[in-house]
Design goal:
By secondary structure, the chain is mainly α. 57% of the residues lie in helices and 5% in strands. It has a two-stranded antiparallel sheet. Strands 3-4 form a two-stranded antiparallel sheet. A hairpin with a 2-residue loop joins strand 1 and strand 2. Helix 1 runs antiparallel to helix 2, helix 5 crosses helix 11 and helix 10 packs across helix 11. The relative contact order is 0.08.
Length: 295
């Protein structure tokens, strides 16, 4: 065994020792097959790197160039028409075989993945959460809803739900006169209610003004005759006919759920959908809290 071989083996031993030391210091769980395969791969790379380096260093000392030169050259420097080294060919073939295995049977196409594990854990936790709070009382739901609101909604609607001076919806009241007039003029088709899109210009002029004033005033006093146009979808009381259309009187659970599922365009941009972010209990809790803001 020559000196170069001894130095190479010592270097490989140092690399392997350093790898094991780092693993131990980081308290990596080697019972996890993914971690174990990674460590074995690191050790294999250290051994192969040293072995290949020793092989070619020895060849450089003893081998001489041979073969037929290609016609092309660059400033007198040419290449030999030698066969591709078998090691390179087999390595390329092995890489292709491994790639096919990886994409058809291996990690993570149809096997374990961290994203899949995380999604599974979230689903399990949400099921436990729903079961735990399925019979929650109003006070618990309101407290839960406040926590959700402060994290998810307050950045746009304000900590108190005041809409930050008109930049977003003010939950202190259902709608302003200006909002109602805008909706009457332009129609609405954002929230996915069963009644479908509200056509524009269903009322105009004085009729639209009277409707907007009555709804924004809390629907108190004598109902305008022109409201009959709205009642066909929203109901005579304006409460949405049991979820068929938006509730004009307040923030009921169905309305809040539709907004959370579909998002809504406002003054400061598009509110995203929260459909995959909140559980049904959390939707209900948020509705209870928003109702408390308008009371």
């Amino acid at each position: 065994m020559n000196a170069l071989m001894i130095k190479g083996l010592l270097f490989a031993a140092v690399l392997i020792g350093a790898t094991i030391f780092v693993v131990e210091s980081m308290h990596i769980d080697l019972s996890d097959p993914i971690n174990l395969i990674t460590i074995i791969g690191a050790i294999a790379i250290a051994v192969l790197t040293v072995g290949v380096s020793i092989k070619y260093i020895n060849q450089m000392k003893t081998d001489s160039a041979s073969g037929k030169l290609a016609e092309e050259n660059w400033d007198g420097i040419g290449e030999y028409k030698n066969e591709l080294p078998s090691g390179w060919a087999f390595s390329f073939l092995g890489t292709m075989i491994w790639a096919m295995w990886y994409w058809t049977m291996g990690y993570p196409v149809n096997a374990y993945s961290q994203i899949g594990e995380y999604n599974g854990e979230v689903k399990t936790y949400n099921q436990k959460f729903e079961e735990m709070h399925k019979n929650a009382d109003k006070a618990t739901l309101q407290q839960m809803g406040e926590s959700i609101f402060l994290v998810q909604c307050a950045s746009c609607h304000g900590v108190t739900g005041d809409g930050l001076s008109g930049k977003a919806q003010d939950f202190g009241s259902r709608m302003t006169k200006e909002q109602i007039l805008y909706t009457i003029k332009n129609g609405s088709n954002q929230l996915g209610f069963q009644m479908g899109a509200m056509p524009p210009m269903m009322a105009q002029g004085k009729d639209a003004e009277e409707i907007a004033a009555w709804i924004s005033g809390g629907m108190k006093g004598k109902q305008p005759a022109a409201f009959a146009t709205c009642a066909s979808c929203h109901g005579p009381d304006g409460k949405g006919m049991n979820g068929m259309a938006p509730d004009l009187a307040g923030y009921n659970e169905t309305l809040v759920k539709h907004v959370l599922d579909h998002g809504k365009t406002g003054e400061i941009g598009r509110m995203p959908s929260f459909k995959t972010m909140l559980t049904p209990i959390q939707d209900k809790a948020l509705a209870v809290y928003i109702q408390s803001l308008s009371n």
